[in-house]
Amino acid sequence: MAEFPLAGLKVLDFTRVVAGPYATRMLSDLGAEVLKVEPPEGDVTRKLGNPGDGVSGYYLQQNIGKRNICVDLKAPGARDLILKLAAEADIVTENFRPGIMDKFGVGWEDLSQVNPGLIMLSISGYGQTGPDRKKAAYAPVLHAQSGLIARQAEIAEAKPVDIQLAVADSYSSLHGIIAILSALRVRDQSGEGQHIDLAMISVLHSIDDYAYWALDDDWPKPEENSVWDAPEGRRILITGDMKWMWVMFSTRDGLADPTPDGSDVATKVRMRREAMEQHMLDHDSFDALTDTLDRLNLAWGEVQPFGPEIYEQPSVKALGVVVDVTDDAGNPRRTIQSPYRFSKSKSGIDSNAKTAKRGEHNVAALQDWLDMDDSEISALAESKALISD
Questions:
Q1: For residues 90 and 227, what is the distance between their CA atoms, to the nearest angstrom?
Q2: Which one, of 322, 323, 312, 328, lies nearest residue 361 by Cα?
Q3: Separation of alpha carbons 277 and 225, rounded Å
Q4: Ranges in the chain annotated CATH 3.40.50.10540
Q5: Mean pLDDT, to the nearest integer, of 10-28?
Q6: Under a CB-based contact definition with an 8 Å cutoff, are residues 79 and 68 in contact?
Q7: Is it the case that residue 337 has pLDDT exceeding 90?
Q8: Facing residues of 92 across strands?
């Protein structure tokens, strides 16, 4: 088997939380060497929730496999250190508010001077130059600003609440990877690097497959409830509109039409839906129902309770979605594997992967990247530019 697709690339990673760390975690799984530059206070997700003596599962999932140095950008010698590291890097990633990297003298203009071939990805809520560029922006804020929360609430006829998935963060990371790989392609041809300005609000609008409704000033018809009660107290989601489901059940499964002659449309819809639901509940078991749905070629999925059991599904286990790893305290943990399955190349993390302590690779990474000797590294530690646990 060939090597990892991105083997040999060096990434200097200043990102925190999800918008950025997920991108660099995927780059790492694809073979790039990712050096996370953590601030003295640590990434805020290190102790999110109740991690015990190790890092949180949240932090572990986004940062497993990365090397780690801890740098205080305010300390003497820190700027020079970052400039030297950037000179050796292929890619720099950051998700500070616009202007913060410039404030410390390590913005795009500074870094590109020492490395004209550098590719720098800057992820922010509203972009580097727009009127809202200085606003704080986390995923829930952008879910609200984009109309996503309001739309979901109206369709569900419920109070607006945030989505329990960091859509803005995760998709910004994925679009960041696309942009980085595109810039690498350009660099292969021209030798020149470039700065990528990725606004999370733009990403949300880009991925929104309902955008055309808003552009046409038309509100989408609320979707019919596709979740049904099933035998054994379980629930099942069936895709496809109810009209097509009725055709399948009535013509291929013998379900009789319960509606009286002359019924209006609303009555037909209500009574046929009730008949289909009772028909599904009348099956002897959940498996018997799913056999029927498969025979009718209706796509279905059980509404699984959120918990460790979702990873015990046969297809999930067969794909190796969960991988055993080690956290920064040496504890055995489980996390999610990257989804790439190449026919020739390697990808992903293995059981030897671990989460680094803050500043764990201060010495090794600076020796590898910059060939620094012990006295130079000690001087940076004495000035508090380098910090470790």
A1: 48
A2: 328
A3: 12
A4: 10-213+322-387
A5: 97
A6: no
A7: yes
A8: 12, 120
**Do the beta carbons of residue 386 and residue 377 sit within 8 Å?**
yes
Counting Cβ atoms within 10 Å, is residue 60 exposed (0-12), middle (13-18) or buried (19+)? buried
Residue 49 predicted with pLDDT over 80: no
Neighbour tally for 159: CB within 10 Å: 6
Average pLDDT over residues 71-79: 97
Check pLDDT > 80 for residue 233.
Answer: yes
pLDDT of 1 higher than 60: no
**Residue pointed to by tokens 């409830």:** 225
Asked whether the beta carbons of 352 and 62 are under 8 A apart, the reply is no
Q: Residues 358, 43, 26, 101: is their CA dihedral positive or negative? A: negative
Alpha carbon separation from 275 to 92, 156, 226, 227, 254 (Å, rounded): 59, 23, 15, 15, 12
The pTM of the whole model exceeds 0.85:
yes
- Residues with catalytic roles: 169
CATH of domain 10-213+322-387: 3.40.50.10540
Task: Please report where in the chains the tokens 């989408």 appear, as a residue.
Answer: 220
Nearest by Cα to 347 from 26, 62, 30, 66: 30
pLDDT at 221 (0 to 100) = 67
Distance between first and last Cα of the chain: 38
